[in-house]
Amino acid sequence: MRAAVIVFPGTNREKDIAEALERASGKKARFVWHGDSDLPDVDLIVVPGGFSYGDYLRCGAMAGNSPVMRAVKQKAEAGVRVLGVCNGFQILTETGMLPGVLMRNAQLKFICKKATLTVTSNETDFSSAYAVGQKVVFPVAHNEGNYFADDATLDRLEGEGRVVFRYADTDGTVNEAGNINGSQRNIAGILNEKRNVLGMMPHPENATDPAQGGTDGLGLFKSLAEVLQ
Amino acid sequence: MKATVTITLKSGVLDPQGKAIEHALGALGFQGVNDVRQGKVIEIDLDAADEAKAEALVKDMCGKLLANPVIEDYSIEISA
To answer: What is the pLDDT at residue A137?
Structure first.
């Protein structure tokens, strides 16, 4: 699996995710600076977490309009897998590669804690290592993680099996108590129509080593390593 | 040309920041405040031959960057 990790001014989780990729695949990922619109020939492009452009104007708005993201969009159309985590998810919605938008958390607080999720679909290149309904714990760290889209879009996402992770309470039940940020239908991660682009707010890369307090995130990177050998 | 762009949340979109401001106004003793919604104003100084061209340019800017059409509406005012 050859992977590239895009780095914007203000990105801060690029090393975490490069290490997670290496743990799962045994191969080092390459970093691509946002100023380079020539992307290397890779199987997976990662848009990592952080505060690209200081979250100015809207989270991910400036990054979403950068030349490197136009190149990522073209690669995605050609079938390259794309994974956007946290700010990466925000950037992917701003490019239009994923529907909807990430708004300010409903309770107005920056949430920095371990979140319980359920795996809603494992018929994806990103979640095949998990069982449907499996409870996983990934850390979250965000102020604008409240996923919003209109009802027609949400119905379509659910109908097409494109919701991959949902927020749940500690025993794995998808309910209001487990919805940490007000996201519509507890949505934490979704796929595009072609199923090669995943955006998610929680950080699976920070749950891939026992030293991080959990390894539930390894499944996501192993799923990718398996399909992209 | 000077353009003033006002960006607001579409009606129906939850605005917790507006709600927080509403509560703070109530706590300060202001009565009868029924609803508050927070938006943004962007001022642009740009070169354009006339007001119509300026407005067309700024509309393009709004569509491409300044506003997110999923949750935001915008209005444009142009002055020479």
So the answer is: 98
> For residues A50 and A65, what is the distance between their CA atoms, to the nearest angstrom?
17
Query: What ipTM score was computed for the predicted complex, to two decimals?
Result: 0.88
Q: Which stretches of chain B sit within 8 Å of chain A by CB? A: 13-14, 16-17, 20, 64-66, 68, 70-71
Please, are residues B36 and B26 in contact by the beta-carbon 8 Å criterion? no
- Would you state the CATH architecture of domain B2-79? 2-Layer Sandwich (3.30)
Domains and CATH numbers, chain A: 3-227 (3.40.50.880)
Phi/psi for A50 (5° steps) reads 140, -155
Cα end-to-end distance, chain B, whole Å: 5
Chain B touched by A65 (CB under 8 Å): yes
Q: Model-level pTM? A: 0.95
User: A139 — contact with chain B (CB < 8 Å)?
Assistant: no
* Spatial contact of A57 and A15, defined as CB atoms under 8 Å apart: no
Q: Do B16 and A61 touch (CB under 8 A)?
A: no
* A66-96 per-position pLDDT tens digit: 999 999 999 999 999 999 999 999 999 999 9
Q: Is the Cβ–Cβ distance between A11 and A37 less than 8 Å?
A: no
* pLDDT tens figures, A150-187: 999 999 999 999 999 999 999 999 999 999 999 999 99
Which candidate, A99, A106, A81, places its Cα nearest to that of A4? A81
Per-domain boundaries in chain B = 2-79
